[in-house]
């Protein structure tokens, strides 16, 4: 796959994945097309025989996924080549009883999910997508994904004439300033669940739904992702953090050969990862343990394995370069970034960083490093959590981006493909130890 095709497919993936549920659904379609078979966690799994190849994937909560390419070699001796990312992004989620009627306008109450940058949400064409749970005409409880796709809402800004200090002192109140506006309505009350039932029936006419019981729905910007810039040097899109990494890891897994390779994409990273589907939950460990014959085999396999935790890095912004350490300002289109923190907010150490530099050199790709300013706080990733849960050697890597956690983020148009090429080498790597 060349750079142009890689980016074209990336934009399609981003467009089709407005929520973690949709992202996992999109990934399962790619995996199934490549010969991966689903496993259900409630079923009894056969332990793969030594020397046998297999391709499995497991989904939890419709929003997290683990895919395993068993190459035929014993992971006890050769280990797993693991790539981890997360499916969730900061957004506005609809509250359980969201209906708001004010001055003849119908709005929805929303809750801020994760550390969202709120100002860019104003004056955007917004749609709504996610998972709904419903009762069908047989009295059964079911769930389905929906996506309104078109712009159905907006959060209008207050005119500067009514707030003369808007450009210097405006703060966003998450309770009262951001409920999206959906329509004019003179009705004293509008039942949001009835609107969802109509959309579900329109989108899935065969389900015969009679009642919406509950939902997990998020607003998103309908502006499609795009390659932009005078020289097409940038990719602009919502949810680059961290669907960009999910896509890179997926493509690397699909090109894996005879080594044992794993892709894990967890939900709930933006809110701490502590859930049944998050990195601090048991999902990944449970899946890998069940593919091995004994606890001893699992411990030995982890000792031979390496995890590359892939989550976007902060590129040095030309207007705010003083926010970076002077020697550690990653540049867009200059390669993937090794993320380092002395206090273990990132899991990279000298050995795992050296391994990644070695694989980058073998792939002919550049590599950069990021350390946060010593007088600023540092974010984190699933890397330290996964390392702690599994006892696996881990390195934190990311593609440099601008406007992280905004409704629309910016990355270099060459960096994702560059990291993909490094992960290809990683997935073919032999010995993964430093003597």
Automatic annotation (TrEMBL):
GO process terms (BP): proteolysis
Known EC number: 3.4.11.-
Key words of the record: Aminopeptidase, Hydrolase, Metal-binding, Metalloprotease, Protease, Zinc
Positions in coiled-coil regions: none
Enzyme class name: hydrolase
GO terms for cellular component: cytoplasm
Cofactor(s) the record lists: Zn(2+)
Gene Ontology molecular function, alphabetical: aminopeptidase activity; metallopeptidase activity; zinc ion binding
Gene3D superfamilies listed in its UniProt record: Aminopeptidase i, Domain 2 (2.30.250.10), Zn peptidases (3.40.630.10)
InterPro entries, A to Z: Peptidase_M18, Peptidase_M18_dom2
Family per record: Belongs to the peptidase M18 family.
Protein name (record): M18 family aminopeptidase
Organism this protein belongs to: Oceanicoccus sagamiensis
